[in-house]
């Protein structure tokens, strides 16, 4: 990465490289893996991209739980495709992180040892098939709000991964909404299941955007670097404004008595999420943290023979060509 920035660099070389980097960011041009970049920029990106990759992989679990008991062949095919997409997203993102000079195995170790985080939302349980629909509608919907701006993020491999991912996320959101539409046209019991799932997932979905801006000290630096495009609160507002009409169309109530259109602001006002709950979940004390990580660890251990076999095969192929 910083190959031409060794100890033997001429005096002033640092400043020149930094100035070149700053100019590139100011001109909205992409930073590529071989370009010089400040160490703090690289570190921030490694953290953000790997946490994003972990979220895709851990995010397979709440819905994956329902594959075996999907109510029809059609629903099973849709859900399988969706969960497989999430595995693919994890793959693109680990590959993007590796262009920053880190190793995927090491990132996985950090996840299963609890040294790296993933999105807080996946620490909540999925209790009925309506949760599959609500996760698609709200959780993938929130992910779209977060990720569409990231298609313009300053680091090239991350931005390009996001373009591919966002296309699939919009399918995820639609399949969730379509499932809920069908359920709302069904029996009273099905409608109750949908409302119950909405009640449980609404607030955690709002928390997906992170703490309020006033408590998000790294936002400003990340925005200056073009890693982050919008603030947490702006994205949260966009999500609420986008979701309210969809909820009305669906016929469900969003569980927030303070949710009201504010004509003066041209946005919806809404209540305050329980930030203490978010802190607790991030700290590792959410309803499903321990289970999510231990299942990931078990899957990683169970897959060791595949990695060993692939490595042995690659070595043999290499030897054969020498
Ligand atoms: Fe995804
Ligand atoms: Fe998704």
TrEMBL record:
Gene3D superfamilies: 1.20.1260.10. The keyword Oxidoreductase applies. Its EC number is 1.14.13.149. GO terms for cellular component: cytosol. Keywords: Oxidoreductase. GO terms for biological process: phenylacetate catabolic process. It is an enzyme of class 1 (oxidoreductase). GO terms for molecular function: phenylacetyl-CoA 1,2-epoxidase activity. InterPro entries: Aromatic_CoA_ox/epox, Ferritin-like, Ferritin-like_SF, PaaA, PaaA_PaaC. PANTHER family: 1,2-PHENYLACETYL-COA EPOXIDASE, SUBUNIT A, PHENYLACETIC ACID DEGRADATION PROTEIN PAA. This is 1,2-phenylacetyl-CoA epoxidase subunit A. The gene is paaA.
């Amino acid at each position: 990465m910083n190959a031409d920035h060794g100890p033997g660099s001429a005096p002033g070389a640092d400043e020149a490289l930094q100035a070149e980097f700053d100019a590139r960011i100011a001109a909205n041009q992409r930073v590529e893996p071989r370009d010089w970049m400040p160490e703090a920029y690289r570190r921030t990106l490694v953290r953000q991209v790997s946490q994003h990759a972990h979220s895709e992989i851990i995010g397979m679990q709440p819905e994956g739980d329902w594959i075996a008991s999907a109510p029809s062949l059609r629903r099973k095919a849709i859900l399988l495709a969706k969960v497989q997409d999430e595995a693919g997203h994890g793959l693109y993102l680990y590959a993007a992180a590796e262009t920053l000079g880190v190793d995927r195995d090491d990132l996985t170790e950090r996840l299963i040892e609890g040294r790296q985080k993933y999105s807080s939302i996946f620490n909540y349980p999925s209790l009925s098939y309506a949760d599959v629909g609500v996760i698609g509608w709200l959780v993938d919907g929130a992910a779209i709000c977060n990720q569409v701006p990231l298609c313009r993020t300053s680091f090239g491999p991350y931005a390009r991964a996001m373009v591919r991912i966002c296309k699939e996320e919009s399918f995820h959101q639609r399949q969730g909404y379509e499932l809920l539409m069908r359920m709302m046209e069904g029996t009273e019991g099905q409608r109750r299941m949908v409302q119950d799932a909405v009640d449980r997932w609404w607030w955690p979905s709002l928390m997906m955007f992170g703490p309020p801006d006033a408590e998000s000290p790294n936002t400003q630096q990340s925005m200056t670097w073009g890693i982050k495009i919008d603030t947490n609160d702006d994205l949260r507002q966009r999500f609420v404004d986008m979701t309210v009409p969809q909820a009305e169309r669906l016929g469900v109530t969003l569980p927030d008595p303070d949710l009201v259109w504010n004509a003066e602001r041209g946005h919806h006002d809404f209540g305050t999420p329980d930030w203490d709950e978010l802190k607790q979940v991030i700290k590792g004390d959410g309803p499903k943290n321990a289970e999510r990580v231990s299942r990931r660890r078990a899957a990683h251990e169970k897959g060791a023979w595949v990695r060993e076999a692939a490595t042995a095969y690659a070595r043999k192929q290499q030897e054969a060509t020498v």
